[in-house]
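Query structure, 155 tokens:
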């Protein structure tokens, strides 16, 4: 704890005030492990272009795919869409090499606003590409009959 000690002289009188004040609540908190996405993107709409990062994985705790889309103007479909994948049990949110690739990718478009999902929002496999449309992914049974955003069972 540090103490602040100061004195003041008011006009020509010998008035002085001593004050000891303890500063509380200003201790450095221990830094928690944060992902590259938490460190690099702020919140709030600042205008276009807008970058959107969405994480996908086989369950709600492991992200193995990130999809980054850039909207240059207000439109329904993204102007640019790029995807990155990891193999195995490595969470893509903790992979600094992929994080650097994404930041380098986004620098060329200069997004003024960025939207990052809070967590994993679905299966990394694409419906109609990796498995038939209307069916559940056979490789990710966790997401079968589950809401992508609340992770609650819907069936």
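Result returned for the query:
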């Amino acid at each position: 704890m540090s103490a602040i000690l100061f004195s003041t002289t008011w006009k020509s009188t010998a008035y002085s005030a001593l004050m000891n004040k303890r500063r509380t609540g200003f201790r450095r908190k221990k830094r928690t492990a944060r992902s590259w996405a938490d460190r690099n993107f702020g919140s709030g709409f600042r205008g276009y272009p807008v970058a959107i990062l969405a994480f996908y994985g086989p369950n709600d705790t492991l992200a193995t795919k990130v999809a980054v889309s850039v909207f240059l103007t207000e439109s329904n479909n993204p102007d640019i869409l790029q995807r990155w994948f990891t193999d195995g049990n490595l969470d893509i949110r903790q992979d600094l090499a992929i994080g650097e690739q994404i930041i380098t990718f986004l620098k060329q478009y200069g997004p003024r606003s960025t939207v990052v999902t809070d967590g994993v929002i679905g299966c990394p496999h694409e419906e109609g590409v990796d498995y038939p449309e209307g069916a559940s992914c056979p490789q990710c049974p966790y997401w079968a009959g589950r809401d992508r955003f609340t992770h609650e069972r819907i069936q």
